[in-house]
Amino acid sequence: MRDKEEKQDYRFMPEPNLPPLRLIMDSDDTRCRVNENLVNVSELRNQLPELPAETRKRLVSQFGLSQEIAIRLVNENALLEHFNSIMKENENRNSKLTANILINELLTVLNKNKLPFETRMSSQSLGEIVDLLTKIVIGNPNSPSKLVEMLGLFQISDISEIEKICAEVLKQNPKMVEQFLSGKTKVFNSLVGTVAKTTNNRANMGVVVEVLTNKLNNMKSLKKHV
Asked: Where would one find coiled-coil regions in this protein (predicted)?
């Protein structure tokens, strides 16, 4: 090992590319506006998003939810967004009933029917259901399937129904059909997307692809024989 150098070789050397960091701990940012090298810690703290622990605490204190329910909502970001939107739209809504429908009813329905969380669903429609249940206009769903029926979430898998939908989409989009028949096969994805949009993403996409493929191939064969 080399011998230690003289003590001056160990002196502090400031990094020229890193300017000095000067912090202000109070909320007065007047000096920060005058001197750009000053960093206001309070202002930075206020700009931070709500942390999970803070969100759980807010759900318990503001909405009276149990710690367990608060944890479930925070762990499922899509559920939390729906809950916040529903309650923001009407702060007088029953928060416990809202959380119960989202966690115990809606998730069960979606998992059972293998549906994505985004399937034809809005916070407004869910909020309306909460209001109806609160006013006892309708009874509390005895099974998740009733909630699915109310929201129209059932997946369309019936071939005859999908064939009608696909036929109508092809009829309404002759330009895309002509492009496909002329060899521009990439337009097929647009046709599939149109069916998905028409059915609010409820159609079984596997069946849709099969039906559209058969119909377009039949149209291609007819065109060759003309």
From this structure: none
Ramachandran class of 196: left when φ > 0, alpha when ψ lies in -120 to 50, beta otherwise: alpha
Nearest to 189 by CA among 164, 202, 208: 208
| Domain 159-225 in CATH 3.10.290.10 | no
Q: Mutual orientation of helices 174-181 and 159-172 as an angle, nearest 10°? A: 90
Cα–Cα nearest to 150, from 131, 119, 129, 135: 129
- Residue 150 tokens read as 């109310």
Contacts (Cβ under 8 Å, ≥6 apart) of 201: 116, 118, 119, 120
Q: Treating both helix axes as pointing N-terminal to C-terminal, what angle do 174-181 and 187-198 enclose, rounded to 10 degrees?
A: 150
Residue 30: how many other CB atoms lie within 10 Å:
10
Query: Measured between alpha carbons, how far is 199 from 186 in angstroms, rounded to an integer?
Result: 21
pLDDT digits (tens, 9 = 90+) for 52-62: 999 999 999 99
The helix, strand and coil proportions of the chain, stated in percent and rounded to the nearest 5, come to: 65, 5, 35
The tens digit of pLDDT for each residue in 113-141 reads 676 666 556 788 788 888 877 775 455 55
Cα–Cα dist 219/170, whole Å: 11
Query: CA gyration radius for the chain?
Result: 29
Q: Is the pTM of this model over 0.85?
A: no
Residue 101 per-residue DSSP state: I
